[in-house]
Amino acid sequence: MATVSIKGKINPATADTVNIIIMDRMENPVTLPIKEDGTFEGSVKLPVIAGLNGIVFSVTDRITKKEYSTSVAIVAKVTIELQIGNALAFINKQENVLDAPPYIKDGRTMLPMRFIGEAIGATVGWIPDGKVVVYDFDTIHIELAIGSKQATVKRGEKEETITMDVAPEIKNGRTFVPLRFVTETLGAEVEWVAETKTIIVTK
Length: 203
Description:
The protein is mainly beta. It contains 2 helices and 20 strands. The mean pLDDT is 93.
């Protein structure tokens, strides 16, 4: 979720609230009140993903009861900051608390599976039969099996098996995946700041 600043105006000012929704990602809209002069302004939390987002604004005329809507497309950039051993993470400077802190194994950063996928905007799944972590983002599909360095990656119709440097694992009841492999495969860039053991992921 990201905090988005919204500002606009309707004319004529014959509605009380404006509904805001991201196409294909929200079931229920968030609302902002409309002032007497038709203006609306505020900050709302929206499930914005890295890349293209379609946002729909709709109002219901209080006189005719008709609904009117318009949509805009925005391209969002997501920056994630993490630190080894620290359960605090930041998505676009907003604080998030991880289920468990990232750690290093065999020279690779390991992170709870769900956080990194959802932070980028991917759909995260779990297949109990085989203990497989699944990521879906746009046309990219990734499958990672616990204890295996072999990852299945599908881009469109092309499927390949890639050998990772370290296998996903379950530790203290949490599933961890190699951060760099997952994020770069999903199209993000990763920066390592050695002095502070900080990882910066940009998508």
